[in-house]
Give the backbone structure.
Amino acid sequence: MTQGGYPVPVDISIITIFPEFFASPLQVSFVGRAQERGAVSVDLVDLRTFGKGVHRQVDDAPFGGGAGMVMMIEPLAQALDPLEHTHRILLTPAGKPLDQSMLDRWSQMPALTLVCGRYEGVDERIADHYIDEEVSLGDFVLLGGEAAALAIIEGVVRLIPGVVGNPESTETESFRHDGLLEEPQYTRPAEFRGMKVPEVLLSGDHGKIAEWRAEQRRQRTRDRRPDLLRED
Ligand code: JEH
């Protein structure tokens, strides 16, 4: 490992018909800094490059009929051919829901490919023969995979050692310590427009503070995410 270099940089390729979608998000904040430091590289692959005919067509009507268009196999296969050595992830509303354990796993891999569909999705033969994992952001509908790919990049980049300033901050948070939601947090001023910070946090009694925080985590989880409390 050379000065400022990372032992295992993550090389991320993104296949999309909207490479411009990623321009600003990849420059700002620590995704940009991580790229400058060589912790991660992001390669945008414009699917249109592999489109068919003079119109660079990437979509066609579905076999069997129905509304909308489906992403054609040929441009996607051509874009994916040189990326067979990478871990290929397809974003789709029909995928397994994204969770922290997937991000942990992917942050350890040398090369990832994120395939962003549009329209009604991609020809199933892509999923069957050119993809390692099909993932969804959750049970709601987007226009395409790009926003989900960005979410994954942020989630992976922050797990690369040395990218986030405080390495401890990646472990002591939601879904890590006790599987409960985080407690509310406050900073100065202690009062703003009559809104006061809970007294206990100003008390200096670290036993009482820890007890209060634990109770807040339980209450919040019961209220907002009861599914996290059920053991099955
Ligand atoms: C959405 C990738 C590519 C919209 C609706 C449908 C065809 C009949 N959490 C997430 N939500 N949405 C996406 C996602 C993730 N990750 C996501 C995508 C793409 C990811 C295209 N779209 C738009 C889109 C639903 N089906 C449309 N219907 C005609 C068979 C069934 C419902 C798919 C794709």
